[in-house]
Amino acid sequence: MHWSLIIYSGVITFLTRFTMIFLLKKDILNDKAKKILSFVPSAIFPAIIFPPIFLDSTGALDLDSNPKILAAILAIIIGYFSKSVLATIFSGLISYWILIFLFNF
Predict the structure, then answer these.
(1) Bridge partner list, 55
(2) Whole domain around residue 82: which residue ranges?
(3) pTM exceeds 0.85
């Protein structure tokens, strides 16, 4: 029963998203709508990334000895110079793990 519910939910979610992508033609949107929609990833990304970095498990701002902030700063610097998404992700993860292991945050 539980697995069938998970599978049905996944199929319904896939179909609702796929139909919007499949039915939406590129020539339907005018240039102004395309320009406005090009800013969506830049607006969504900070909303997804910043809360896990700056907030603790209770939802309070955590700026004291937070290894996530140092790892994020290092990842931003490496991402800026390397222009590689994979290098940015791996550098952030590895630096976070090293900070936790060495300094026992």
Answers:
(1) 61
(2) 39-103
(3) no
Q: What is the pLDDT along the chain (105 residues), one digit of tens a residue?
A: 688 999 999 999 999 888 877 776 666 778 888 888 888 888 888 888 888 888 887 888 878 888 999 999 999 999 999 999 999 999 999 999 999 998 875
Contacts of 70 (CB under 8 A, 6+ apart): 95, 99
Q: Is residue 34 part of a domain?
A: no
- Check whether residue 49 and residue 78 sit in a common domain: yes
Query: Hey, how many other C-beta atoms are within 10 angstroms of the C-beta on 57?
Result: 6
Residues 25 and 71 reside in one and the same domain: no
Please check whether residues 48 and 91 belong to one and the same domain: yes
User: Alpha helices of the chain — where are they, by DSSP H?
Assistant: 2-23, 31-37, 40-54, 67-82, 85-103
